[in-house]
Amino acid sequence: MVLLETRQLMKHFGGIMAVNDISLSIGKGEILGMIGPNGSGKSTFVNLLTGIYTPDKGQTLFKDRDITRLPVHRITEFGIARTFQNLRVFQNISVMTNILIGRHSQIKNSLWEIYLRPFSVWKREKAAREKAMEFLELAHLTDRGNELAKNLPYGEQRLLEICRALASEPELLLLDEPCAGMNPVEMDTLAEFIQRIQASGTTVFIIEHNMRFIMSVAERIVVLNMGKKYKEGSPLEIQSDSGVQSIYLGEEEDSDA
Questions:
Q1: Does the structure show a pLDDT above 90 at 87?
Q2: Tens of pLDDT along 11-25?
Q3: Mapped to the 3 state alphabet, what secondary structure does the chain carry?
Q4: For 31-44, what is the mean pLDDT?
């Protein structure tokens, strides 16, 4: 079953075509990876999916419903959540509170309920805490709930950010370069966490620059280059493609120049 589909998405900024005619689908329950060199259009593409940008042309369907021009909060309500390249954890509050903030779309307490039905509000808050603890268990962070987020090592802060995205109980989780700044051990921990997320029933779409990481976790991979879809296939097919190797080797040569 196709969960999300894009049809000929295009987005330009001035004279630069950042996303050029990209069509792809994400199957329910899979881990899809997207790789490409810096400037290939990966982050622009995920911003189009989540309502931060509006495409110049094309369409995005989620469960056969057109979400192309919906605002960010509506897309979240439909069941799509994301993380960002730059860490966005609230450093000076607890790990548990960080996750509860992510559940704001699930907890709707009116002023009338707060004053006249406090018990029902309490029950909702209790259920939210229990659900937040489930996400901490999934991330193997159960002993960290009461700690300030800033006291966690960087890799665990990344896991916390993902937990907060999961708190809205999405059907589709988009991770934008989740292993940025991580060391190899932290990357392995992240890969295992993502596999547990998939096993729990959430579809995962990972946008990543690190080829080693994406090969270890994705079931299918899309390669972008210069805003276009260059290739799509299994990790083995992508890894053995000479064109993909040239794209990455060319980037390394440019950075060394």
A1: no
A2: 999 999 999 999 999
A3: CEEEEEEEEEEEECCEEEEEEEEEEEECCCEEEEECCCCCCHHHHHHHHCCCCCCCEEEEEECCEECCCCCHHHHHHHCEEECCCCCCCCCCCEHHHHHHHHCCCCCCCCHHHHHHCHHHHHHHHHHHHHHHHHHHHHCCCHHHCCCEHHHCCHHHHHHHHHHHHHCCCCCEEEEECCCCCCCHHHHHHHHHHHHHHHHCCCEEEEECCCHHHHHHHCCEEEEEECCEEEEEECHHHHHCCHHHHHHHHHHHHHHHC
A4: 94
pLDDT computed for residue 256 by the predictor: 43
How far is the CA of 34 from the CAs of 176, 209, 220, 224, 235, in angstroms? 10, 8, 9, 7, 11
How far out from the chain centre does Cα 46 lie? 8
Q: Is 13 helix (H, G, I), strand (E, B) or coil?
A: strand
Which stretch of 117-126, 152-161, 194-203, 237-246 has the lowest confidence by average pLDDT? 117-126
Q: Which amino acid is at 119?
A: F
Among residues 14, 20, 15, which one has the least CA distance to residue 57?
Answer: 20
- Where does residue 84 fall: left (phi above 0), alpha (psi -120 to 50 degrees), or beta otherwise? beta
Top-tier CATH class for 1-79+172-186+199-257: alpha beta
- List the chain domain ranges: 1-79+172-186+199-257, 88-169
pLDDT band for position 120 (cuts 50, 70, 90) = low
